[in-house]
Amino acid sequence: MLRLSKLTDYAVVVLLRLADGDRATCRAGLSEPVQTSPGIAVATGVPEPTVAKVLKSLASANLVLSLRGARGGYRLARPLAEVSVADVIAAVDGPIALTACVDGGAGGCDLQGLCAVEGRWDLVNDAIRQALDRISLEDMCSASVPVAFRVMEPELVALPVPAVSAAAV
Amino acid sequence: MLRLSKLTDYAVVVLLRLADGDRATCRAGLSEPVQTSPGIAVATGVPEPTVAKVLKSLASANLVLSLRGARGGYRLARPLAEVSVADVIAAVDGPIALTACVDGGAGGCDLQGLCAVEGRWDLVNDAIRQALDRISLEDMCSASVPVAFRVMEPELVALPVPAVSAAAV
DNA sequence: CCCATACCGTACTGCGTCGGTCCAGTTAGC
DNA sequence: GCTAACTGGACCGACGCAGTACGGTATGGG
User: Do B161 and B148 touch, CB atoms closer than 8 A?
Assistant: First the structure.
């Protein structure tokens, strides 16, 4: 299914929140001073430890800057337009590669020598890498799609999503 | 890591084997009459039950034709050039979608309404789908590149593997 | 007509990875 | 020096995948 980890999804949400906090204005705002991980957690609805984990990954990939100590927090390292989806995925999920057989994982495959495709997946990997590289976070944000059609799920709307609600989004 | 299931990898191997059996001549050969799953298993080194499982998936996606009864077996449904990687992935791993939140999977996400990206992943999904659609199995086979040059990806070889590190990329 | 061959479908199980949590340590403002 | 906040590591349960097994069915040959 080509699944992408949920953490990566969270990472995008967090970065978007970090960019401005206001959903309407998705343009890259480095204006926002710093935001703490508890703060982002409340704003996004993502559990706080998870937010912290994601931010740690993003920080070590230099997508966000961290300020330690009291009154510390996180800031975007560069505007959203300069961050590609590939960057985020690589930061959270590790390098982009479809199979374990490729990209130097020369160790694992016990079909070595039999495998008719050997390194053939590189073609595919590169294609995907390029595709992901062309999409910036700003692209994912600015498109103005009506969110309407999903609201029809009553049991979901009724879910006890605590407190967060209106103020955030 | 954007992992692709190992089954999909096997599927490509099996299809290539089914195309001709001889690695040197990768051109689409519908010439080969039929091949049994045990036969393919020995030829490729993939365990037989797994081969059978893969072939079943491929058969129900109409990528291969099955002939039952004694002297039965499998045949390619169409030449390799007309089978895209996306087809194979969809057959084995299910529809291509990065996250569960999208593509009508309206059920899962409990951040409904909070999620700042809502349906934004569609952009990415489409990009990947197109990229995969452009690569045929023949492409993966015919390219005559020596597997050597993989080494040119220094950041990947250097990585100590753990999922969350990714400092390099 | 019977049997061997080979596909078909389903169900089961072990294992690896991921999502999520927690804790001890460190840094910096007040 | 105290407290707020990031840092890093370890830990654990849950889910999904890979692999296996088994009973069933269809076809061709003797």
Answer: no
Residue A128, SS3 per DSSP: helix
CA–CA gap between residue A37 and residue A18 (Å, rounded): 10
Check residue A138 and give its pLDDT. 86
Q: Does A1 touch chain B (CB under 8 A)?
A: yes
Least Cα distance to B31 among B83, B80, B85, B84 occurs for B80
| CA–CA dist A58, A52 (Å, integer) | 10
A46 CB within 8 Å of a chain B CB: yes
How do residues B19-48 score in pLDDT, each as one tens digit?
Answer: 865 444 555 444 457 899 999 998 888 889
Strands A73-76, A64-67: pairing is: antiparallel
Q: Measured between alpha carbons, how far is residue B104 from residues A4, B15, B24, B32, B119 in Å?
A: 16, 31, 43, 41, 10
Query: Alpha-carbon distance B24 to B12, whole Å?
Result: 16
> A83 with A26: CB under 8 angstroms?
no
Q: Is B117 in contact with A12 (CB distance < 8 Å)?
A: yes
- Chain A: closest CA distance from residue B68 (Å): 27
- The residue-averaged pLDDT of A104-109 equals 43
User: Rounded distance, CA B133 to CA B80, Å?
Assistant: 13
Distance CA B104, CA A153 (A): 12
